[in-house]
Amino acid sequence: APPMLESWLAVETGGDKLLSLPARIDDRPMPPVTLVDTRNDRRIRSGVAIGRGLETFLKQALNDGGQAILFLNLRGHSPAVWCRACGQGMRCGACDVTLTWHRDRRAVVCHICDFEAQPPRECPGCGQVGLKLLGVGTQKLEEEVRKRFPEAKVLRMDSDSMRRPGSHDRALEQFRSGEAQILLGTQMIAKGLDFPNVTLVGVVDADTMLHQPDIRASERTFQLIAQVAGRTGRSERGGRVLVQSACPDDPAIRMACEHDYASFVSHELAHRRGTRTPPFTSLARVILRSPDERAVADTARGTAEVLRRLQPDPPSVWILGPAPAPISRMKNYYRFHMQLAAEGPEAIRDLWLSAASELPKHPSVELVIDVDPLNLR
Question: What is the pLDDT of residues 233-244, one digit of tens each?
Answer without folding.
Answer: 777 788 899 999
